């Protein structure tokens, strides 16, 4: 009963915070839970939410790699990865690379670079990156 405040109005009953959190988690989908967890983790890492990243500005973003694809650009190889942080996605593109050790789907990553927009999608070319905990 320690979680129930003494100042509750007569006739009303407040649920303990832990119970509310448990019920919210039970009613949420896996995708909603993943998004909330990624947002919380990214915030602790000092990253900007992808949804708040403006065009032509440098940002640090963090999240989980959803896909990693080899897509040639202008005849040269380019490794493209989609990073999701719970708010939005950004494409990370390393020009001239076919593979980078550790850049795999499901891997947590922190990246820093200049954000641009191509075809309505946020893109970061040749970002500096730091691999985080395992996949």
UniProtKB/TrEMBL annotation:
Q: Which InterPro entries match?
A: NA-bd_OB-fold, NucleicA-bd_Rv2694c_prd
**Region (Disordered) location:** 1-20
Entry keyword annotation includes Transcription regulation = no
Molecular functions (GO terms): DNA binding
- Keyword terms: DNA-binding
Provide the transmembrane region boundaries: none
Q: What domain of life does the UniProt record list for this protein's source?
A: Bacteria
Q: What is this protein called?
A: DNA-binding protein
């Amino acid at each position: 009963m320690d979680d129930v405040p003494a100042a509750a109005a007569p006739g009303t009953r407040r649920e303990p915070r832990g119970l509310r959190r448990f019920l919210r988690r039970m009613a949420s989908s896996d995708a909603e839970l993943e998004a909330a967890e990624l947002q919380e983790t990214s915030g602790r890492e000092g990253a900007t939410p992808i949804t708040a990243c403006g065009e032509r500005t440098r940002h640090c973003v963090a999240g989980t790699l959803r896909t990693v694809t080899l897509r040639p650009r202008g005849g040269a190889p380019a490794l493209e990865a989609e990073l999701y942080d719970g708010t939005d996605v950004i494409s990370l593109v390393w020009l001239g690379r076919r593979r980078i050790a550790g850049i795999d789907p499901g891997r947590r990553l922190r990246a820093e670079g200049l954000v641009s927009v191509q075809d309505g999608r946020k893109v970061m070319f040749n970002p500096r990156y730091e691999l985080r905990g395992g996949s």
